[in-house]
Design a protein that fits this description.
Length: 517
């Protein structure tokens, strides 16, 4: 195998366009991500077979319809060597985990042309623990131009056959997310992987809240395979809302009153770059930037249920989850202190809302088993969630029994109780104990919910008329919808619409069942 010389460099090329890459075929005797031979390998049709150097071993490499398999070549099997089968077992990767292929070449100072061919580099996705994905490379070393060209073309043909994988993406980046880290996250972690894959991108930097919504109403999306949001929950929810509004408009529907909305026409990718990242965490099982990026690159699509929020028959917005009462007032408080850091703002708002804990008097009306059920009383908080709502402070989720697309929502009601008992309930979200195991907490599985606040004129309980409050409007109630503040002066009708949008992400059940490498 050729060795590097002083003044030389190695590049990974595709047809002659150079990509900088370190030489990964160093002294690694065995690939850490390879598995034993799959049972169905014997029945798999062989597309190509040849000899490549992998690590330090010359290997017999077989390209099948679904897998790439290899085994080190041994001229004569040592007699009585019990370690032979362990050290020289057949290993493989699945073709669906390959996301790019390049020709690997070495260049020397002042050298012109395509350089010296070393072989082929495969860029692959590895499944790690806790639903995490990681990018890696596999070098197939062979100095024959003709041999590598045949294999290179076959790999390109295979990758082109994955029709769900995007070739062009519209990307909305919120530079203000979290501690203004979104720009760095995108250009240091996301963009390099997209470039390796050859995905074309059109990046738009949003300048204010609602900017993505206004742009998506009119911007040209023809020729794009998907839309990506780099930001927090507010940005992600805004882009999802905009895509769904655009779909209704394109279908000729009146957006003020939507009974049966149509599905979004393009899938949405979520790159977590916010403070809580509930949407991305619920989708991927982990708020991990590279994991989210690889799901987008590999075209993993997950249909997700979406809610419509309406008041007096008029659509307010699309969303995935909402909190009314304590959750809404806490967000309203936090929004008044945007000058604080996200974590400081959140902690301050929670402490202040707990110190001035208020009862919301109303009547949630839920649709359970095709019949309406009225629930009346005084409530500290009402949560309506179509997704599990995983986050760092609730690793099992605010609604752990809800799934992304099971066609139902979780209605969680915390009735009036003492402040210490309510705090115990909140602390349970961060523990392994059941946060719903309190006499004042009720849970329902529903498809529709109508929330009727009792005091519609002031937005406050009559006993609190002389106290300051956190709503931005004197005649409205604060709602926390996907981390965004929504105000409604009257009853709100929340209705679930199954599988209304597709998000780039893998099934958590499938990922948990898959082998960890």
């Amino acid at each position: 195998m050729p060795r590097g010389k002083r003044g030389g460099r190695v590049g990974v090329l595709e047809g002659g366009a150079e990509e900088e890459a370190a030489r990964a075929a160093a002294a690694v005797p065995s690939a850490p991500w390879a598995f034993p031979q799959p049972p169905e390998a014997a029945a798999e049709q062989v597309l190509l077979r040849g000899i490549f150097e992998i690590g330090r071993n010359s290997c017999d490499v077989v390209l099948g319809e679904r897998t790439l398999r290899w085994r080190p070549i041994q001229p004569v099997r040592p007699a009585g060597d019990s370690k032979y089968d362990v050290l020289h077992k057949e290993e493989f990767i699945e073709l669906k985990d390959i996301f790019s292929v390049k020709l690997k070449r070495r260049y020397f100072v002042a050298q012109h042309g395509n350089g010296t061919l070393l072989g082929i580099t495969l860029f692959i996705c590895l499944k790690k623990e806790q639903n995490k994905l990681k990018d890696s490379t596999l070098d197939l070393i062979n100095l024959s131009e003709d041999h590598c060209d045949i294999w290179f073309r076959q790999f390109r043909k295979i990758l082109a056959g994955f029709s769900n994988r995007p070739k062009s993406l519209k990307i909305f980046l919120n530079p203000q997310s979290h501690e203004k880290e979104a720009t760095q996250v995108y250009y240091e972690k996301v963009e390099p992987l997209l470039k390796i894959t050859g995905i074309k991108t059109d990046v738009i930097i949003t300048e204010y809240e609602g900017h993505a919504l206004s742009l998506l109403k009119e911007c040209e999306l023809q020729g794009f395979d998907g839309v990506v949001c780099v930001g927090g929950d507010g940005s992600a929810s805004e882009v999802a809302h905009a895509l769904l509004l655009r779909a209704q408009k394109n279908a000729g529907m009146e957006t003020d009153s939507i009974l049966t909305p149509v599905r979004a026409q393009l899938p949405l990718g979520l790159i977590p770059a916010g403070s809580t990242n509930v949407l991305a965490h619920s989708l991927h099982g982990i708020p991990h930037v590279v994991t989210a990026t690889l799901h987008i690159i590999l075209g993993h699509l997950q249909p997700v249920d979406v809610c419509t929020f309406s008041a007096t028959g008029k659509l307010l917005r699309f969303g995935f989850s909402a909190m009314f009462g304590f959750g809404g007032r806490t967000l309203a408080l936090a929004e008044k202190h945007r000058w604080m850091s996200p974590n400081q703002r959140r902690d301050f708002a929670v402490i202040k809302a707990l110190a001035r804990l208020k009862r919301a008097q109303g009547s949630p009306k839920s649709d359970c088993n095709d019949r309406w059920q009225m629930i009346q009383g005084q409530f500290l908080n009402v949560s309506i969630m179509a997704i599990p709502c995983l986050c760092s402070v609730a690793p099992r989720g605010l609604a752990p029994n809800t799934r992304l697309n099971n066609g139902s929502m979780a209605l969680i009601i915390a009735r009036n109780t003492s402040r210490p008992e309510f705090i115990k309930h909140l602390k349970r979200y961060a523990s392994v104990k059941n946060q719903f195991n309190f006499p004042f907490v009720e849970t329902y599985t529903v498809e529709e919910v109508k929330v009727y606040p009792r005091n519609k004129t002031s937005g406050r309980h009559p006993e609190e008329e002389d106290q300051p409050h956190e709503t931005a409007s004197e005649e409205s109630f604060p709602w926390n919808v996907d981390g965004d503040l929504m105000e409604a002066a009257s009853e709100v009708h929340v209705k679930l619409h199954p599988r209304l949008i597709s998000l780039y992400g893998g099934s958590l059940e499938e990922m948990n069942d898959s082998k960890v490498t």
